[in-house]
Amino acid sequence: KFKPKPVEEKSPVDEYVNAPAFNDTLHVDNRANASFVILARNSDLDGAVRSIRDIEDRFNRRYRYPYVFLNEEPFSDNFKKRISVLTSAKVEFGLIPKEHWFQPDWIDEEKAKASRDKMVKDNIIYGGSVSYRNMCRFNSGFFFKHELLQKYRWYWRIEPDVHFHCDINFDPFLHMEKNNKVYAFTITMYEYEATIPTLWGHVHDFMKLHPEYVHPNNAMGFMSENGGEKFNLCHFWSNFEIADMDFWRGPAYTAFFEYLDKQGGFYYERWGDAPVHSIAAALFTSRDQLQFFNEIGYEHNPYTHCPKGGNRWEEGRCSCDPARSFDYDGYSCMSKWDRFMDLRW
Ligand code: GDP
Ligand code: MN
């Protein structure tokens, strides 16, 4: 007797669309005046190798932007050798001048020590560390003054042991330049208040002294719920930064950093470069000059930004889990940013 052949069930695997083919086009003819900047210790070598492997794989093998590594101690030959083998781009290794790094003489060490001891007691992360404070002050006010960076306008800050989870199929530097952007981020969150108890007060004093630097279309509304009276602690996580060094080198930020530095809070408290950069970018530029790079899947332990909306995740062949993006974490300021900028995903 005739028995009809059973209809073959479609395998569920067929429902999924393969990622687009690898994009191997070289983009070295039309580039911005830009460099990667990596601050690292010799002991950060393995983590730095992993970060460079990631960014080369996902972006820079097609763009070949140069790298500048900075350290307050000379990089070892082994460090230089193991980094240089990873890329065909130019890599330079620089020594940070002492006066850009170490705690200045005019800081009252007794007072600084008392503050460190208290922060250790209060269990504040890096609370007892002087080198961490040197690093935060250097990243706030000095890296862009380094001689190896003078030839560049744009930089992309990379840290050891970070991850880039998606193909970056465009040039973020050129995007910034073409759209008149100043500062770009991928993750925004709340700062630990105990590290910056007096910072906002000094910001206020500075704004009163220099109202001419405060941009009429600033992003104060992102950082304060009451017109600037109280800081809501939202800031951009500066271990990822793509920004215009001409902004840090310009009159507003120069005056701002000098004013803050004089207050001694990098040592008497534990001011991070993240709130310092973020507040400056939010107040002294137009809000339209701040850029959220949704497309750039980025991880710095313990948080990951994974692209959201449209099919950006597929187009980026991303290795991150979009359901676990930090954007939706209670500790993230992303929803505040979206509301402030009137963004819909
Ligand atoms: P966290 O991200 O706030 O936990 O701080 P990290 O330990 O990652 O430090 C931030 C960046 O500064 C990283 O690129 C580190 O490699 C670098 N860094 C931190 N401390 C020092 C230091 O004492 N010397 C040098 N040369 N780099 C440092
Ligand atoms: Mn880090």
TrEMBL record:
Alphabetic keyword roster: Transferase
GO cellular component: Golgi apparatus; membrane
Keyword Electron transport in annotation: no
Any GO molecular function: alpha-1,2-mannosyltransferase activity
Entries under Pfam families matching the protein: Glyco_transf_15 (PF01793)
Gene3D superfamilies: Spore Coat Polysaccharide Biosynthesis Protein SpsA, Chain A (3.90.550.10)
Annotated InterPro entries: Glyco_trans_15 (IPR002685), Nucleotide-diphossugar_trans (IPR029044)
Active site feature: E241 (nucleophile)
Superkingdom as given in the UniProt entry: Eukaryota
Single GO biological process annotation from the record: cell wall mannoprotein biosynthetic process
Similarity remark: Belongs to the glycosyltransferase 15 family.
Name the record gives this protein: Glycosyltransferase family 15 protein
